[in-house]
Amino acid sequence: MTTSYMRTAPDATHFVSSQDGTKISYLTMGSGPAVIVIPGVLSTASDYTAFARALAEHFTVHIIERRGRGESGPQGADYSIRKECEDVFALQQKTGASFLVGHSFGGFVALEAARHNPSFTKLAVYEPGVSIDGSIPMDWIPGSQKKLAEKKYLDAFVEFTLRCGPERVRRTPRWLMKLMIPLILSPHELKQRLSLLHESIREHQETARLDGSYENYREITASVLLMYGGKSDLPWLHLALERLATVISQSETQEFPRLDHFGIDKKAPREVAEAVCAYFLK
Q: Domain ranges in the chain?
């Protein structure tokens, strides 16, 4: 294992081979102890550059490009959360990172990775996507798969949004949501999210497969910062945080009162980065 404190070129892209030979790309910036950042569903590494740049004032930050995205290889026929963890372990072996940050599904991956790899000593997860007793909806998947098969990508995204979005969004009529989405999202954001719907479905299926397995996180030896936005109204969130705080022996919970689910990547990446930095350095 190697640890590098060398300052890298801004936003340098590198590659590592995972255990099954899949090429995994990652974006690197900064100098100092190594941190791996794991993006969430429908996101790519570049979505976290503002967060990473703020964190890179004290750390060497590596944002992993998860399978099925960008220059990384495909999820593969045998995709599972284990494959996601193997990708993280490959990057950890190359960089010597002992710190890990994850957002949403990426937070779920981070918890799974830390459970199987005690060399991670500190984690910071922002609204980790942990399902408890069916708390994260999965009933949208068949409808979304049907729309994808018909190449009705926006309709497939509407199915996802109406079931997995914030409570206020779920009350929106389907026809209105279809009109609103292209107005709310930039063309780039919309294109990216539509292109990752297939990957998102497989990731949610893994979340469903491991539903209720949060007790396994008693095995985590790292200290964990559990973060959430005070304006998040995702119905599964508070139950997940409550259960995680109960089973993880070394954990702290931090609220960001004015932020929502996208606080770490879109709303206030520097604010979240400063909290993560303080936690990792203490």
A: 12-131+213-281, 141-205
